[in-house]
Write the structure tokens for this entry.
Amino acid sequence: MSALKNDTFLRALLREPVDYTPTWLMRQAGRYLPEYNATRARAGDFLALCKTPDLATEVTLQPLARYPLDAAILFSDILTVPDAMGLGLYFAQGEGPRFERPLREEWAIRALAAPDPADKLGYVLDAVRSIRKALDGSVPLIGFSGSPFTLACYMIEGSGSDDYRTVKSMLYQRPDLLHHILEINTRAVTDYLNAQIEAGAQAAMIFDTWGGMLSHRAYREFSLAYMARIVAGLKKENEGRRVPSILFTKGGGLWLEDMAATGCDALGLDWTIEIGDARRRVGDKVALQGNFDPLCLMGSPEAIVNEVEAILESYGPGSGHVFNLGHGINQHTPPENVNVLLDAIRKTSPGYHAG
């Protein structure tokens, strides 16, 4: 593997000194880019795009060809894991992901097994290897997975949901069944992320998209406890350097201290949290990533620059900050507004790293 030419992102995650605040964007390869839409049309559908390593490589690299970003993130989907468990993932036109066989019956839940990543998710690992080769050491590659609880939400509901009533009913009626699913998911995610790291991912991120809709006690029992086990089980070094881990619970601002105590290297923040407050709360335990409101990119250039400056000022001087959005980039974002964002970060952030 080629030596890394720009490791600013990895150093910031480990709170080592950097010259500027590094940046990548959640969902940076996505529908706001015309070149992505062209490749997706060639693939035929979203799942074919995920499952064809050459095309996944192509779309992973597209934002890096257009913008001066400090990391690439593997192009895939969190639902590849339950798909590999045989739940029958498909994407209905205009409706998002659905499963043919959601987990509703006890026998199906008891029969659930963690897939062997090399066997059932080999196409993802092939994509990781292909992307690393194509990046040629320019910037690091982030691997990722959904959290056990977030995966369980889709596996039980069978699709996205407004209130996750089916999951919460199971949580309060049959917690033993939900714990069984989470147990299997934890094993699956740990194996999957470690396989990504072995294939060449240089950082690992866990997306807990739905943990924030749990009650305080339920979050700790049904989401955080399992993510802590994954963090503990992750391969911490590969290719002679540390592989940092990032935990992100959307709506998780109440639990930052608990999340920081898992042993992860960094926390992702959504836009509802003041990053300076988050830094004061977690001290020097973890780096912080986030928390620009993705819909600010629909605003005027002045609004974007003002928000960048406010976030950098709130975080303050020193390392440990990765600039990012508080959630995925919106598909209607004008691509030129991303240039405004990145220019403002590159112009303003070095002042916070001087000396």
Observations:
- The chain has a mean pLDDT of 96.
- The first helix runs from residue 8 to 13.
- The chain has one domain: 8-352.
- The first strand starts at residue 72 and ends at 73.
